[in-house]
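Try it yourself: sequence plus FE2/S2 (inorganic) cluster, in.
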Amino acid sequence: MPPLTPPADTAAAVTPSTSNGFTPLRVKRVVRETADAVSLVLDVPDGERGRFAYRAGQFVTLRVCIDGEEHQRCYSMSSCPALEPDLQITVKRDRGGLVSNWLNDTAEVGSEYTAAPPEGRFVLTAGEREVVAFAGGSGITPVFSLLRSALSATARRTGLYYANRDRDSVIFGESLSQLVAQHADRFTLHQHLDAADGVVTARHVADFMAGRGEAEVYVCGPTPFMDTVEAALLDLGVPEERIHLERFTPVAAPAPETNGAAVTEEVTIELGRTTVTQPYRAGNTLLQTARLAGLKAPSSCETGSCGTCMAQVTEGSARMLNNDALDDDEVAEGWVVTCQALPTSPTVRVVYE
Ligand SMILES: Cc1cc2nc3c(=O)[nH]c(=O)nc-3n(C[C@H](O)[C@H](O)[C@H](O)COP(=O)(O)OP(=O)(O)OC[C@H]3O[C@@H](n4cnc5c(N)ncnc54)[C@H](O)[C@@H]3O)c2cc1C
Ligand code: FES
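Structure, out:
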């Protein structure tokens, strides 16, 4: 695989190229949102606009090369396709994180990264229901796009519960205030600051949901925030199918000896015209097993959100650590998101479409 974004010190030595659906995109504008977050407006070449068309709430997979090593990360669009021709992502520094800090430190107009076309299922559902979102920190990115889409293209009522550490961490603060002014009749914003209010609790969620029980609810943010909000929504009786989750970090896998997978001996994987039987290593997901078998299995978010890695278990069984992508019918037919699926029978056969 060619390096798609060169390390800063070798920028002139590397020519990015389109490969495996990844396309070089040049940064045409950089917006320093806060000390910890940067928005990058990416120039999509005319010939690629069709492939890079997206729905509010979706993300692109960026591949960068730092110090000679390639890294792949997903970033949601913070732009709104109904309002802006350009594609914008917003990257918040993850403390100790590699790519987010590198992008914040080095991105400039003219920088070139390669990206795979947009995907993801964290998108507006059809219908008239109110749209309520709970966003924490960088989780505002897809939510900002979703809400502006709902406000510009529909007559739906909308509400945003937006949690941040403190005032300095708030991304899009000014734009959100403008949205409130423009749509005072149908957009409610509640800003929660941990520094003043403590961490978000079930009580905060219940208060914001009062009178909004029929809404479609979108949740995106750090894992503990998402866990609190999801549990509170379920306790309030919001049906699972109306709770839409976008996870930025994978659910932690249990220790192999407690995950029920130790009994598995081998996994047979069909991908395209290739069929491989691979001895199973306890604790590995089906996606990891496919990679160990030398297969280039499709993947993107690796959190169970996008469905890119889905495959059907046609023999044996598997369980998912997390599934925010497949509906009940698909699961009943044996489909799994392989990035989250652990085999649970002595042998398993998995077929990628
Ligand atoms: C669908 C999707 C959409 C996303 N959208 C956005 C978005 O819009 N904006 C955004 O900012 N992010 C988004 N993310 C998250 C993003 O993809 C990255 O995960 C994030 O930027 C962190 O990447 P990183 O390389 O900086 O951190 P990494 O280097 O991957 O590290 C992640 C964390 O692990 C810790 N860590 C790393 N190595 C170790 C180790 N050896 N031991 C212990 N801890 C370690 C780091 O300290 C850090 O906290 C999205 C993710 C997904 C899946
Ligand atoms: S890679 Fe996105 S659900 Fe598995």
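One thing you can check immediately is this: Residues 1-18 have pLDDT under 50 and may be disordered.
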